[in-house]
Amino acid sequence: MKSLIQKLTETFSPSGYENAIREVIRREVEPLADELRVDALGNLIARKGPSTGSGPAKGKKRLMLAAHMDEIGLIATHIDENGFVRFTGIGGIRPQALTGGRVRFVNGAAGVIGIERLSDPSKAPTLEQCFIDVGATSPKDCPVKVGDVCGFDRPFLDLGRRLVAKAMDDRIGCAVLIETLRALESTPHEVYFVFTTQEEVGLRGAHTAAFGVEPEIGLSVDVTGTGDTPKGSRMAVSLGKGPAIKVKDSGMLSDPRLVAWMCAGAEKARLPYQREVLEGGTTDAMAMQVSRAGVPAGCLSIPSRYIHSPSEMVDYEDVQNAVKLLTALVSKPIEW
Amino acid sequence: MPELIPFLKDLLSAPGLSIHEGPVAELIRTRWAPLVDEISLSRLGSLHARRKGSAAEPRPSILIATHMDAIGLMVTRIEDGFLHLAQVGGVDARVLPGQLVTVHGRQDLPGVVIQPSPRLLPPGFEENPVPLEHLLVDTGLLPRRVNELVRVGDLVSFAQPPLELAGETIAGHTLDNRASVAALTVCLETLQNRPHAWDVWAVATVAEEVGLIGAYTSTFQLRPTLVIVLDVTFAKGPGANEWNTFPLGKGPTLVMGANMHPALHKALKDLADKLEIPYAVEYAPTHSGTDASATQVTAEGIPSAVIGIPLRYMHTPVEVVAVKDIRRAGRLLAEFIAGLTPDFMDKITWDD
After folding, report:
1. Which pLDDT tens digit goes with each residue over A117-150?
2. Quick one: residue B298, left, alpha or beta (phi over 0 = left, psi -120 to 50 = alpha)?
3. Which domain holds residue A47?
C-alpha cells in the first residue's frame, strides 16, 4: 500500500485540476469496480455491489464513501517585470508553511517560493508578501501565465511506521478507499466509492456527487488533526491510536446512528479507534448531510500532523486499520 | 385542550441538542399526533406532520418550520476527571460558569460548569470573561469513574429547570426555539375548529443551530408551495439598541428582508392589522439567521416568510419570552392558513 500512497501523493492535482489524479485512481479502480463513471464536476464514481435501483431491501443500503482527490495549491495572479510570479491560494494556504518551499505547476514548470524583506521578521509573512521564482527574468521568458496552477513539490518520505507527504490530505483517504474496494470480496450493499473534486474550495464535488448518487448513508474518509505534538492544539486524537470516528467538526455534527455503527464495528472487529471532536475544519460529509432530503452522514478520519503543510504525516497502522474497519463495516448488513 | 405553559416547560426540559433531537421529537409527536392526519420522521429526524386541506387535488401546501434543536456543549477532552468543552451551536460562554448541566455519557450525569480561579489561569483573566477553552465540567466523580462513563464527543446539555416569572413570562434555556414549537402547537389546536383549503405541513426541524440542516432537507422532501418560518428574535432589554430589538409582550415581529417574499410578508401584515393582533416589523436586510435562508433557495425556490417571537438574553440558559407573544404568533398563523384560498399564489406575483 505504501507504493500506492507514494503514487497518489506525488501526483499534482490542485482543486479544479484533478485530471492527473483522476487518471491515476481510475487505473487502480477500473478492474475492481462493477461500474465506473465521471460526473459533470469531474468526480470519479465507482460502484461495487448490486445496483438496487430505488428502495433497497432491509439491511441493504446505498452508501456513498467519499475521499477528495484534489489538494491545496497556488494560482498565479500576476507576473512582474522581472519574471517573478505573484499568487493566491487555492484552499487553505498557510503562509508560514510556504517559505523556501518548491512548487510544481500543472503544466510542468517548477519554482521556489521567496518572500519580501519583512519589516518585522518575527511575524509570519502574508500571502501578498510571497512570490514564486521560476528562474525567469521577464514575463517573456516566464513559463508561467496568470491563472496557471501549482502544488507543493515534496517527495514522499517513508519513516517506517510514519509516512510523510504533501497532499496526504486527502490522497490517504483515496488510498483507503482504493484498498477497501480491493479488499471487499462481497457486499450486500450498493456501495459508491467516490473520489471527489474541489473539496478544498467548498466541498463542491461532494455536493453534486451526493445529489447524483442519492445515498442513504454518506461517509467521508479524510484527515483530521492531532493533539500530540509539542505545544500543539489540544485535541484528544493521537497518531497511532487508530483511525478516528468523527463526532463533530466545525462544519458538521455526525449522525449519531453512524457514530454508534462505526464504534460498534471497530469494537467487534477488535480494531483500535478514537472518538474525534475537531474544532477547525470540515469534510465532504457536511455536503452529503444536506443533500436532497437529507443523508445520515459521518466521517472516518485518518489522524494527521501538519495538515496543509507540504509535509503531512500519518501513521501507517492507522491507515491499515482504517481499511480494515471500512471493509468490515460495508461487508455486513446494516440494521438501522 | 391541554394547557400551554406546562407543555412549554416540558419542551424546555426535554433533551435534544442539534442532530440529537430524538427525545424532544418524541414529546412533540405525542402532542401533535391527535391534531394532524399523518405524522412521521424524516431521514435526519425532523418531524413532519400534515393536516389535509379541503381544496381539490393537486392541493397547494404551506410548510411551517420551527426548529426544535437546542444549543449546548460537547466533551472534547477528559483530563483528571474534568471535562473540556466545545460548543454545539453558538453558546454565550460568559454566562456558563456556575451553570447546572447534564452530561449525556453512558448514563446521564449531573454536573456543574466551573471556571478555575484567575490565579490558575494564564494572566489576563482577572477581570475579563473566561473563554470556553478554560471552562470545565465537574461531575464530582473520581477520574477513573469519569473515564468509564464519559467519552470524547458526549453531549452536555443545560439542566436549569424553566422558571415562570411574573406577568406570564418564562425564563429558561432553549426558548430558542421551543417557544416557536409551542406557537405552532397553538396554531394546530386553533385549526381543529377552522376549515382550511391548503394542506398544512407542521415541521419541527433538526439542526438549525449548526447549518439549517432540517430546513434544507425537509423543504426538499415535502416541496411545499409556501413556507413560514417561526423563530425567536431579539427583544428589548437592558442596553438594547432602538433599531433592531422589539418589545417583549407586545406581539410577534413580521420580518422583511432578502429571505422573505414581499407579497407574503404584506399578506401577513394586512391580516394582523385586520385581526388587531399587535406586531412589529423587523428588517433583516441580508441573511435572516433563520431557516428561511435555506427554505427560500431549496429546489426551484419557495416563497418564504418569517415570524419572530421576541426573546431576551438569546443563547444563554436564561432566555426570557412572554407567553402572550407565543399565543399571538400561533393565532396569526392559524388565521393566515385558514384564509389561504386555492388561488392565493396568483396574488403574490412579482409584477404587481
Report:
1. 999 988 889 999 999 999 999 999 999 999 999 9
2. beta
3. 2-71+166-331
Q: Is the pLDDT of residue B117 over 90?
A: no
Between A216, A248, A289, which is nearest B213 by CB? A289
In a domain, A336, yes or no: no
Q: What is the pLDDT of residues B324-338, one digit of tens each?
A: 999 999 999 999 999
Say yes or no: A204 and A143 in one domain. no
Whether A160 is covered by a domain: the verdict is no
Residues A178 and A237 in one domain: yes
What chain B holds in terms of domains, given with CATH numbers, is 4-70+173-347 (3.40.630.10), 72-158 (2.40.30.40)
Q: Which residues of chain A have a CB within 8 Å of the CB of B70?
A: none
Chain B: give the shortest CA distance to residue A275, in Å. Answer: 6
In a domain, A161, yes or no: no
Amino acid, single-letter form, for residue B64: I
The mean per-residue pLDDT over the stretch B9-26 comes to 97
pLDDT single digits (tens) B242-299: 888 999 999 999 999 999 999 999 999 999 999 999 999 999 988 888 999 999 999 9
Query: Which CATH number covers residue A114?
Result: 2.40.30.40
B251, B326 contact by CB (below 8 A): no
With bands split at pLDDT 50, 70 and 90, how would you rate the model's confidence at B128? confident
Task: Summarize pLDDT for A274-329 with one digit per residue, the tens.
Answer: 999 999 999 999 999 999 999 999 999 999 999 999 999 999 999 999 999 999 99
| B chain contacts of residue A289, beta-carbon cutoff 8 Å | 44, 213
Q: Does A264 reside within a domain?
A: yes
Which among A277, A289, A292 has the least Cβ separation from residue B86?
Answer: A277
Residues counted in chain B: 352
Answer yes or no: is pLDDT of B70 > 90.
Answer: yes
Last residue of a domain, one of A129, A152, A175: A152
Rg, C-alpha atoms of chain A: 20
The alpha carbon of residue B118 is apart from the nearest alpha carbon of chain A, in Å, by 20
ipTM metric: 0.93
For residues A277 and A249, give the distance between their C-alpha atoms in angstroms, rounded to a whole number.
6
SS (H, E, C) A166-212: CCHHHHHHHHHHHHHHHHCCCCCCEEEEEEECCCCCCCHHHHHHHHH
Same domain, A173 and A286: yes
For residue A231, what are the contacts with CB-CB under 8 A and spacing of at least 6?
Answer: none
Q: How far is the C-alpha of B299 from the C-alpha of B297, rounded, in Å?
A: 6
Q: Inspect the interface and report whether the beta carbons of B153 and A294 lie closer than 8 Å.
A: no
Give the helix/strand (H/E) hosting B294: helix B292-295
Beta bridge partners of B82: B79
Number of domains in chain A: 2
Whether A215 and A287 map to the same domain: the answer is yes
Indicate if A8 and A43 belong to the same structural domain.
yes
Same domain, A196 and A140: no
CATH number at residue A316: 3.40.630.10
Same domain, A139 and A195: no
pLDDT surpassing 80 at residue B220? yes
Predicted confidence (pLDDT) at residue A55 exceeds the cutoff of 60: no
Strand partners, B63: B201, B227
To the query of whether residue A199 is one of the catalytic residues in this protein, the response is yes
Check if B328 contacts A (Cβ < 8 Å).
no
Which of A152, A179, A208 is the last residue in one of the domains? A152
Residues in chain A with CB shorter than 8 Å from the CB of B75 are: 277
With CA atoms as reference, the chain A residue closest to B75 would be A277
Q: Do B152 and A276 touch (CB under 8 A)?
A: yes
Residues of B in contact with A247 (CB under 8 A): 74, 152-153
For residues A197 and A136, membership in a common domain is answered with no
- For B198, the grid coordinates are 391548503
